[in-house]
Give the backbone structure.
Amino acid sequence: MIPYGRQDVDAADIAAVIEVLQSDWLTTGPAIARFEQAVARRVQAAHAVAVFNGTVALHLACRALGLGPGDSLWTSPNTFVASANCALYCGASVDFVDIDPKTYNLSVAALEHKLVHSTKKPKIVVPVHFAGQPCDMRALGALAKKYGFAIVEDASHAVGATYLGEPVGNCRYSDIAVFSFHPVKIVTSGEGGMLLTGRADLADKLRLLRTHGISREKSQIEGGWYYEQEDLGYNYRLTDLQAALGESQLRRLDEFLSRRRALAARYDRLLADLPVTRPWQHPDGVSSWHLYVVALERNQDRRKVYDALRAAGVGVSVHYIPVHLQPYYRKLGFKPGDFPHAEAYYARALTLPLFPRMSDLDQDQVVEAVRKAVA
């Protein structure tokens, strides 16, 4: 089976992890700071804070920005549930903004319309860089200034992407950006996440919250054993083992991006004569191509196409079931028809395999299977 995504771990990655295993530190050691500094340099961010995964990164971002009961977070329905759940973890409410039918990202026009006509404004908006394509952050940043909300970029798909010629994650138009290093993402640390911010106060708060809310600032005064719990935090720390793998993987980021972009361009050529809609790319950004999603024609039975491809050894998937259609969110009052563009996209979407070690022969097999399945 050709999977839709797969990690690419080489000998250098393995050696980096072994080096940590043979060191004095398996967790809370120097590899974490090195990983943070490497990511911050790569995306030109002032501060980077490593955590255990992308979901806890979203949670900490909301906590650091003061989200709580009585507040609201708005995000895209075309995302994994974590982009919305992070608000509920804080006791806040969630609402959604429909997507742009071309980019599949949160629609700026829909957001502006909702802001104008809603009596309750959001405290945080979470735009999701779906499949690696950047959102229109300049326009979102302008709305944030006008209406007074914070922005947390869910850039889990977008490590290595650029927007207006600058790296996604530099937080020029946002308060915090979040990366994920899950095995199917652009680079992996096994599990892992990273928060980027340009604000020192937020970075300090994030570091406090990821380690139980404990500070050792007074240890030099009171004694080396001394610590104080200043907030109700969590054990959301990354280990040195994961950080070492992540830093090693980051050195190969350009290699990964080059292959992903070459495969995406090749898909564009090979699928040009088939009855599928290929992913459209906005000229303001350069995608990291975490996913390659096609849309089937309306007369195609998506389930039949999906089953035929899986039977042919092609591990297609679907990203994503709109969050508001999940049973848990329906209990909160959301229903079919609330966000029609996201629902129309979902009804036709199919994610094709894309990963750095995918060969041209693998890709030819995928395209031939698609050709037969949609015939």
Q: What stands out?
A: The mean pLDDT is 97. The longest helix spans residues 253-270.
